[in-house]
Structures are given as structure tokens and as C-alpha cells.
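Methods — Computational structure assignment.
A single polypeptide chain was analysed. Its primary sequence is given first, followed by the predicted tertiary structure written as C-alpha cells.
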Amino acid sequence: MSDLPSVLTRIADALDRLAPPPLAAPALEVADAFVWHPDRRLGHGTLAPVAHVSRVAIALLQGIDRPRDLLLENTRRFAAGLPANNAMLWGARGMGKSSLVKAVHAAVNGAHAGALVLIEIAREDIATLPALLGMLRGQKRRCLVFCDDLSFERQDADYKALKSVLDGGIEGRPANVLFYATSNRRHLMPREMSANEQCTAINPAEATEEKVSLSDRFGLWLGFHNCDQATFFRMVEAYAAAWKLPVATEALREAAVEWSVTRGGRSGRVAWQFIQDMAGRLGVAAPE
């Protein structure tokens, strides 16, 4: 028994070596954008700085004037330390939802350097969102946490983690953090109600309500819809002007129509892909 203290000391030292080191506060001053890389085994993660964010200037985003103005105003208020809402950008694919989030971040930081940090979290890492918010809580810089293409399937329980951090929990959402998400689904769940109701709950309708209530946690809903041909022309012409493409308007429109027909639809993404192709054929390099 005389060796018991030394044995306990060795056990304590071994446990200290096995335990993960204390998590250092993230250095948010080194960049204006980061990507969240969680370590599920340790229960935390790291923020990788992004030197150059792939984005489109806000002035080039056509046909989404109302969502643009609302999101920009909401983000400006948040950057100024005023109350603002979590935002859900939902609707037609390729209509500039994720582009708008990145463009708004750039616009606000352009007016007030360093006002906001943009942090991207992957859809499959939503369950680690509480760990990320724990790292950001108490930081001086204000942070936009952004999840692109957010949605949940019938058997997916990660939405519960998101619900708790958006509007619930004893700690609540940190005052310096706002959550923006994009989705093709208005309520983040499968569109076929039968997919939500096929469960073993006593009352399937209550199970559906419990899932759909996630979207209620977003105070700002912005809808994006398929564009008509006039709006598609505005998109194409704005991109062509920014790239300084040496092509007449009528010829540009004719080529754009043909391109959209081959793609089976019109959208901001289709317009961007068309301009990339046109610039390549004309031998014009991408603007810096």
C-alpha cells in the first residue's frame, strides 16, 4: 500500500498525456473567411483560413433584387452590432443563393474593413455546430456561419442539433454569431410528405411538425425562383460587360438562348457557365 500514491501519480500523468490539449482560441484576425474542419473524435475542430474567397461581385447578381436588399440590410445591421435574424435562402437551383451570401459578406467588409468573418460549415458537419459556436463565443469579431445546400433526409437526426443552437439551449446562440443557410427545399425536409410521415410515431403529423419547425428558427426567409428570358439576358449581359467580351448584344443573346436550350433551363449558374464558354472561345482571360 505504500506504493499507492506513486501509482496514482503515474496513472494521473498517463491520463494527462492521453487527454487532448486545451483548445486554443481561434485566431480570427488572420483572415476574413474560414472553413470549419471538425474532429469528431476529440469533440472540437480547427478553422482553416481562406486567403481568397471564390465569389461574384454583388453588382453582377441580377434578378434577385429583393432578396439581395433584404440580406444586405440584415447583414449590415449585424455587422453594426444591432439585432439581426438568421437567414434561410431557399428555392430554385442555380439562382445565386450561395453567391449572394458570399457577395454580401464582401460588400459589408468592403464598406467596413474586417467587420465580418465568414465561416463555412459543411452539411455533413452540422452535428458539430455546437462545438464551433463554443469556440466562437466570446470572440471580438462578428461571425457569419454559412452552410450551403442544407437539407435533411427522413432518417436524419442532425436537424435537432441545428434547432438547439438556432433558437434553444440554455446558452442560446452567441451574440457575435449569425447563421445563414441555403437550400433547394423550403422546409429543409423531403418534399414528399409521405417521406416525412412514414414513421412509427403515435401521431405521424406531430413527427412532421417537429421536423418542419426547424425552418421556423430562421427569422429571415428569402425565396429564389426560376428566371424568365429577360432576366436571363440581364445576367448574361452583366457578365459580358464585366469580362469585356467583344461581342454584339444580339449575337450574345442568340448564343445565350442556344446555350440555355441545351442546358434545359435558365438560371444564374447557366448564364455564368455560358459566359465562361464564350470567353474561352473569344480568347478573353477572366478578369482579376
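Note: The first strand starts at residue 33 and ends at 39.
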